[in-house]
Design brief:
Order of helices and strands: EEEEEEEEEEE
Number of strands: 11
Shape: globular
Number of helices: 0
Structural class: mainly beta
Distance between the termini: 40 Å
Oligomer: single chain
Helix content: under 10%
Radius of gyration: 14 Å
């Protein structure tokens, strides 16, 4: 089992920045590095992949956030981060951390992730 807990959400004006964190626990006995990713879901919309890190450390981003968001991880602290800059109102959503998908082309597909956090709300006002 893997437990994930997000933090860092909040309300900002357009153009502002936020940094999300995701603390992972319960997986330290695993022999492999898990893929991890950030997803978001706005009211009435499907959950979409935002950014992910594959098991080899390579990142992937949704086109809508490229150049604005940066995903990173601290394996020593078992933490995943999402630095969000130049935020737009359309970035408003609940943001979720997820872990342990097969990776590769499946990295940003939510149906492949067995472990999820509870989410943290990000609201961007115009």
């Amino acid at each position: 089992q893997v437990q994930l807990e997000e933090s860092g959400g909040g309300s900002v004006q357009a153009g502002g920045s936020l940094r999300l964190s995701c603390a992972a626990s319960g997986h330290t006995t695993r022999r492999y590095t898990m893929t991890m990713a950030w997803f978001r879901q706005a009211p009435g919309k499907e959950r979409e992949g935002v950014a992910g890190i594959d098991s080899d450390g390579s990142p992937s981003y949704a086109d809508s956030v490229k150049g604005r968001f940066t995903i990173s991880q601290d394996n020593a602290k078992n933490c995943l981060y999402l630095q969000m800059n130049s935020l737009k109102p359309e970035d408003t959503a609940m943001y979720y951390c997820a872990a342990d998908a097969p990776g590769g082309a499946l990295l940003l597909r939510p149906q492949w992730y067995p472990y999820w956090g509870q989410g943290t709300q990000v609201t961007v006002s115009s």
